[in-house]
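Table 4 source record.
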Amino acid sequence: MLARTLAAVAAMAAAAVLIPAVQRPLTGPQSVRIAAAADLRFALEEARARLSARTPPLTVHATYGSSGNLHAQLRQRAPFDLFLSADVAYPEDLVRGGVANEGDLFTYALGRLVVWVPGDSGLPIERDGLRALGAAQRIAIANPAHAPYGRAAESALRGADLWDDLRARLVLGENVAQAAQFVDSGAADAGIIAKSLAVAGAMRDKGRAWEVPHDQYPALLQGGLILRWAQSRPAAIRFRDYLLGGDGRELLTRNGFGLPPR
């Protein structure tokens, strides 16, 4: 009887130690490693500055690339805590592959597509939209093979019956940020890029943008995923909740994104 009583007391003591460890809130500096679609660069830089100033501070380490390439790395368990993709299909595939749990999947934004030209360009994009690209020598888009914005650009050009005429003049970026860099640097005359890159940073004041109507390309529904091997799951959850909350939604819309249906 005494042995059983002592065992019960020991079990209760162990539970008392374990429960606070599981439920303890974040009280010190935390960090989150994010594999992020290239269209998020400016929005996440702003988010990083905001979260580093909060109590407790959250440090954001973001690596940017095309969603397809990041997806391939994550299938090999690349060391990230959170995946923010420009196409929800990539995190959905990771869930189907057993890399992450369905409950950790979420949508956070709708990507927008624009035609961007330097400020001194003579291309009449405001008047002619995509058809103005007929006079361009080089047109930058993200590579459709692994970049959602590249596939959206291809779809828009095909829908306007321009793909066959312009295909030989396309300059393919590894991701949409590189496509934007091509046209910003003069390596291309025009670009079909993410609105989030055209309305933020230096490009906002250096050029002109025309937004491609939403019905001219498949919806760029952007999705995220907390990865099963996250080094700091509480930090990843905290960043996700920030992105989906009021402050995060305001940040995304100001940076050129639409919001997904709830």
